[in-house]
Specification:
Structural class: mainly alpha
Number of helices: 6
Order of helices and strands: HHHEEHHH
Strand content: 5-15%
Distance between the termini: 20 Å
Number of domains: 2
Shape: elongated
Oligomer: single chain
């Protein structure tokens, strides 16, 4: 499980209720179908404590973690960033479809159940959007438009093979 994604999951879980590290691992396993290892969880909790996104209180030889105001603010920032990227991704797809005359679809931008995937790909999607929005579409040649359409179509097919 990617550490950036795990960080988001931990903050979201602690936003619901305080928990021990063990309880966090169980809760994440229950919601995600994959259990984070103690070797991932506890170093992350230490980092989140150092950054004051969470706090820990010792109780009966266990540490109960809870989210801080800074942690709640970070969750809000992540939600806004995700929303912005989804909007930009949607706009980009519309622009590509209009420019290329193709019908590119990225289902994970619209399906609610697939939005859990976004944290894994946020950086890649942002880079793609950045590259494709740097050039005014009217300045693209027909050949460039065909090349972009071909690349996106090939990428879609490769992704479908990987996901199957």
């Amino acid at each position: 499980m990617a550490s950036g994604y795990l960080k988001i999951l931990v903050l979201k879980e602690l936003n619901q209720s305080p928990m021990t590290g063990y309880d966090l691992m169980n809760s994440i396993e229950s919601s995600q179908g994959k259990r984070p290892s103690a070797g991932s969880m506890y170093p992350l909790l230490k980092i989140l404590l150092e950054r004051k996104l969470i706090k820990g209180v010792e109780k009966n030889r266990k540490t109960i973690y809870s989210i801080t105001v800074s942690g709640k603010n970070r969750i809000e920032e992540i939600i806004k960033e995700k929303s912005f990227l989804l909007k930009k991704g949607s706009e980009l797809i519309k622009k590509i479809n209009k420019t290329c005359g193709c019908k590119v679809k990225l289902p994970f931008l619209s399906k609610k159940e697939d939005q859990n995937i976004i944290p894994h790909f946020t950086s890649s999607i942002h880079k793609l959007i950045s590259v494709l929005t740097k050039k005014d579409e009217s300045k693209l040649s027909i050949e460039q438009k065909k090349d972009i359409d071909k690349i996106l179509t090939e990428t879609k097919k490769k992704l479908q093979k990987v996901i199957k």
